[in-house]
Amino acid sequence: MSLTDLACKRVQDLIPYQSARRIGGVGRIYLNANESPEGTYNRYPDCQPKELLEAYANYAGVSSDHVIVGRGSDEIIGLICRTFCEPGREQVLITPPTYGMYSIAAETNGIEVVEVPLKDDFSVDIFAIRKAIQQNNIKVIFLCSPNNPLGTIINHNTLEEILVETAGKCIVVVDEAYIEFSIKDTALKFLASNPHLIITRTLSKAFGLAGIRCGFALADTEIVELLLKVIDPYPIPTPVSDIALDAFKEENLKIVQDRVSRIVETRDEFSESCKTLKCIDEVFKSSSNSVLIRFKNSDKVFSEAAKAGFILRDFSKKPNLQNCIRITIGTKQEMDELLNFLEGMQ
Ligand SMILES: *Cc1c(COP(=O)(O)O)cnc(C)c1O
Questions:
Q1: 324 alpha carbon to ligand 1 midpoint, in Å?
Q2: DSSP labels for 128-168?
């Protein structure tokens, strides 16, 4: 089966909206897009700003026809659901606890979600995934590495097994929103030999640009073309691509790298210090910019922390995460303040 055959029929047959920019043409006087003749931002942007694709491709070490840019990786997650799943007939598979947007993106598009929970040690349950694939019409598998909220990395042998199992049958997405915090663990090396693999990335976390809404996917060119049939005509505002482009200048990449090192160092120090606290049962090892902590009484910690001005993320109502709170790593000073507070909790 070709990758195009994996897309839903609707998308295979779709002729994308022919925006003025897409039809293109290079000239002296532009009278084709009903734009204003005057103004700073009077022209529609390219659907996929070429320079930005090239900058990201260069940063990621792939060629630019393997890159798609969207309004955050959340938009790309939605695009993947709509491109490959027939509502009511085909499903996406997720491995909870995991990022919440996969099921929202699927369900808001009428696509059912099949859940294959992680094992007790938070590793992916390959046998259960195999069974779920046999029993359903799963078209997309969402894996998150480093996982949110756990901070865990998917084992590469497991990923390889899943890729073998799914070749020609479904798309495997590895969400690498946090990969800069553990770049050695990227699944990029699997891309060339696995055309059904999509890696999603974002500028929202390590790059510190959550406010501009800019995310990427790395995939086979055939997948890129399919996703481009479904994407909105102008997803990337001109100021966004300008700011994003700036982020890939060498001196700015260096700033990001230094910040990542600092956050990783702060995370490890904070995690170590937490292990000695009376109010804490377990600190999970993280490869991300947050740590998941199991408290003795998370409700109490959560509400007392809020009163003291610390806004944390409660995961205690999620399956397998009783008494767990996720804490994003802030500055060293912020984490010291939180530690001080936690030391006072009994
Ligand atoms: C934050 C996050 C995203 C969303 O990224 P945007 O590019 O801001 O849309 C995607 N996946 C995971 C796992 C995240 O934690």
A1: 20
A2: HHHHHHHHS-EEEEEEESS-TTT-PPPPHHHHHHHHHHHTT
* pLDDT, mean of residues 303-309: 97
CB 72 near ligand 1, within 6 Å: yes
- First-to-last CA distance in the chain? 59
Query: Left (φ > 0), alpha (ψ -120 to 50) or beta: where does 309 sit?
Result: left
CB 178 within 8 A of CB 288: yes
Q: In this structure, how many other beta carbons lie within 10 angstroms of the beta carbon of residue 316?
A: 16
Q: Does residue 97's CB lie within 6 angstroms of at least one atom of ligand 1?
A: no
177 C-alpha to center of ligand 1: Å?
A: 5
DSSP annotation of 50 reads H
Question: How many whole angstroms separate alpha carbon 171 and alpha carbon 168?
Answer: 8
Q: Is the CB of 74 under 6 A from ligand 1?
A: yes
Contact in structure between 46 and 59 (CB atoms under 8 Å): no
Q: Is 151 in the pocket of ligand 1 (CB under 6 A)?
A: no
Nearest atom in ligand 1 to 215's CA: 7
Rounded CA separation 8/127 (Å): 27
| pLDDT exceeds 90 at position 23 | no
Q: Is the dihedral of CA 215, 44, 84, 99 positive or negative?
A: positive
Q: Is the pLDDT of residue 9 over 80?
A: yes
Q: Which of 182, 197, 187 is nearest to 290 (CA)?
A: 182
For atom 15 of ligand 1, the residue with the nearest CA is 148
User: Tens digits of per-residue pLDDT, 195-227?
Assistant: 999 999 999 999 999 999 999 999 999 999 999
**Rounded to the nearest whole angstrom, what is the distance from the C-alpha of residue 45 to the centroid of ligand 1?**
24
Closest CA to 214 of 224, 230, 225, 201: 201
**Could you tell me the pTM of the whole model?**
0.96
- The pLDDT of residue 131 is 97
The finding on whether 220 has its CB within 6 A of some atom of ligand 1 is: no
